[in-house]
Amino acid sequence: MDRDTRQHLRRLVGRFYDQRADSFSGTRRHPWPGWRRLLELLPPGRLRVLDAGCGNARLGTFLAASWPPGVDYVGLDAGVGLLEHARHALGTACGPPSRWRLAQADLLDEHDLERALEGLGEPAEGGRGFDLVALMGVLHHVPGEAERGALLRRLGRRLAPGGLLAATVWRADRAPGFAAKVLSWETVRDALPDPARLEAGDHLLGWAGDDGPPRYCHFADDAEVDRLVAASELDEVERFHDDGPNGASNLYVMLRHRAA
After folding, report:
1. With 60 as the cut, is the pLDDT of residue 138 above it?
2. 3-state SS track over the chain
3. pLDDT for 211 beyond 90
């Protein structure tokens, strides 16, 4: 995918979350069932967690309530509105921010990611790493397979030896009624000049029946997931489906740091 197309799709995603932060957060208050399985794969003891694309931090509040040894949580998101929801949720569930920190960051900009982590007191790559790096509900908003693979590699370098990168691949395209939710590129105001530049699996989705900005979403097939795992330079632990009415809305991909 060419740079101009990627930038256009990224603007669509940013505009959606800028304008729909409140309504989106309101529908994202409960933990995903698949997170219970995630707990079984984590190392013992207090956890250092990087929640990349944290949204309203519901993973952080889930871990705080579900991991007795405790959690040191770092949440990053590009959306100012969602970060405000995250601060409120973490303050309510976890108390003063002595064990949680938040920052705005563009995950697809390596320099911005490093700036945000440095601003939170995190060392540069190769220093103290995270036991868990979570990428929940993010990959489908990253335009271009090469960018998705680069993001996995970038975040994998932030793992402690033996640490776990847990990513989800949204499988909404396999649910009944999916086609009715898809918007045509040709009829949307922000349509691309040349939809032929898109990749297979790229779609525009509306939101809750309104006429606000659409979401760009990419739905990766199994062959692409295999390529993304290979590109991550991490060892695959397992894959499993969970979440949603049919228990298969998300494909979880668990990747482990190659400890020396």
Report:
1. yes
2. CCHHHHHHHHHHHHHHHHHHHHHHHHCCCCCCCHHHHHHHCCCCCCEEEEEECCCCCHHHHHHHHHCCCCEEEEEEECCHHHHHHHHHHHHHHHCCCCCEEEEECCCCCHHHHHHHHHHCCCCCCCCCCEEEEEECCCHHHCCCHHHHHHHHHHHHCCEEEEEEEEEEEECHHHCCCHHHHEECCCCCCCCCCCHHHCCCCEEEECCCCCCCCCEEEECCCHHHHHHHHHHHCCEEEEEEEECCCCCCCEEEEEEECCCC
3. no
